[in-house]
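Input sequence (318 aa), recorded before submission:
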Amino acid sequence: MENARQAQVLDRFLGSALGTFVGDTLGEPVEGWPHRAIYSRFGLLDAMVREEAHYTDDTQMMIGILETLEERGGFDPTICAGKFQENFEPSRGYGRRIFGVVERIREGIPWDQVGTDSYGNGGAMRIAPIGCFYHRDLKALKENAILSARITHNHPEGLAGAVAQASAVGLALQHGLSQEPIKRMSFLDRIVTQVKDVDKRFAEYLDKIRSIPGGSVIEVIEGITGSYGLSLRAIESVPAALAAFLLTHSFRETVISAVNLGGDTDTIGAMAGAVAGAYYGYDQIPQEWLNSLENGAKGRDYVVNCVKNIVSSLSSSL
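Predicted structure, C-alpha cell format:
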C-alpha cells in the first residue's frame, strides 16, 4: 500500500510541476495578446508554437522551489532566495522589479528584506511544489506559501494570490488521490477560507467564479474574459486560472481554456496547468506537449528527477 500511495502522489506531483511547465510554454508565444487576436491567428491555440518550447520565469522560479524542497526536505526561504538568484536568466521574461530583488539577494541582503510591494502574480505562478508538498496540512501550506511569496512580493494581493494558488493545488491533489469529483462551490469555499484573512478583496474576486457558467471551451473562455481583467495582477489572473480548471473536464481543456483567454497567458496557463496536473495527474498531460518541452540542463528531465527525489524523501509520511 505504501508503494501504491507513493506512486499516486508522484503522479500528481509530476502532473502539477509539468503542468506548470506545459501551461507556461504553451501560453508564452501569445503573452499580452487579447483573446480575439489569439483566436484570429490560431482558432483555439492547442499546440506548441515552437518546435522546442522554452519556459519563462514562471517555470524557472518553480524549479528554484523544487530545488529547495529537494535540498532541505521542506521549504526554507533563505535557501530559496539563493536558488532564485542562482537560476536567474533575464531572457526568461522576468518582470522589471525582479531585477532589483535578485541584485539585493546577490548583495547578501536577507530574504525578508529584498521584496517589493508588488501585487503581481509572481508569488502564485511558481507555487505548485509547495501546494503539492504540503497538501496534507493546509495550515503549513498557507504558512509556507506566504514565506515563498514574501521573497519577492509583500502586497496583500500578491500574498493572497500565492495562498489561493497553493491551496488550489493542494486541494486538487487531495481530490485526485481520493478520486473524488470536485464540487465547485465547496472547493471555492475552502480556498476563500484560506485567503480571506490575507486579503478580503481577493476572496471576493474568487467568489465571482461561482457565477460563471460552464459549457464548451469557447463558452468557458467567454465567461472568464467577461469576469476578469487577465492582467499580471494576482487578483485578476489567479481566479481566472482557477476558473479555467473548475469549469472544464480534463487537463487538456483546462490548459487550452487558460492560454486562450489572452492577457498574461503564460502565467495563467502555468497556474491552471499546475492545478489540473495535481488533480488529473501526469498521465493525462498530452504526450505531444511533453515531448516539445525544452530539455537542457534544467529542462523537463531535470524537473522530473527533482520531483522523484522529493516524493521519495516523503515516503514515510504519505
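Checked by second reader. Residues 2-317 form a domain with the ADP-ribosylglycohydrolase fold fold (CATH 1.10.4080.10).
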